[in-house]
Amino acid sequence: MNREKIAMFLLFMAVLFSFIFSVCPEKLSAAGKEETIAGFVVKTDKGYVIEADDGDYLVKGKDLSKMEGKMVEATGIINESAKGDTIEVKSFEEIQE
């Protein structure tokens, strides 16, 4: 490669990375970040979910079976996908409505 091709390649890569970080910075920075949600624990055919105001989260990581029908505040890692949202619960507590 000559210098012009290398310079064009580096310029292209800089523009590409700049575009990626400007379009989706929240997805890049939120990966692995703990969040807290509140909602009712409900048993479904897929397992226990927390029905929050912004949607349902399939519970992973902790056994919330004793909290069925109760309102909880759960903290954990949220993963969003086309199949549905999940929360890898690190901690939770019952809250009063």
Task: Give your account of this protein's structure.
The model has no long low-confidence stretch (mean pLDDT 85). This protein folds into 2 domains: 31 residues; 61 residues, OB fold (Dihydrolipoamide Acetyltransferase, E2P), CATH 2.40.50. It is of the alpha+beta class and 97 residues long. The chain contains 2 helices and 5 strands. Helix content is 28%, strand content 43%.
Summarize the structure.
The chain has 97 residues and is of the alpha+beta class.
Classify the fold: give the CATH topology of the largest domain: OB fold (Dihydrolipoamide Acetyltransferase, E2P)
Structural class: alpha+beta
In the predicted model, the low-confidence regions spanning at least 5 consecutive residues are none
Strand content is: 35-45%
Kindly report the average pLDDT value.
85
Strand segment tally: 5
What's the story with the biggest beta sheet?
5 strands, mixed, barrel
**Overall radius of gyration:** 20 Å
Shape: rod-shaped
Q: Note the run of SSEs as H and E.
A: HHEEEEE
Distinct helical segment count: 2
Distance, first to last CA: 67 Å
- Indicate the percent of residues in helices: 25-40%
As an assembly, this protein is: single chain
Physical arrangement of strands within the biggest beta sheet: 1-2-3-5-4
What's the number of structural domains? 2
Which architecture of the largest domain per CATH?
A: Beta Barrel
CATH class of the largest domain: Mainly Beta
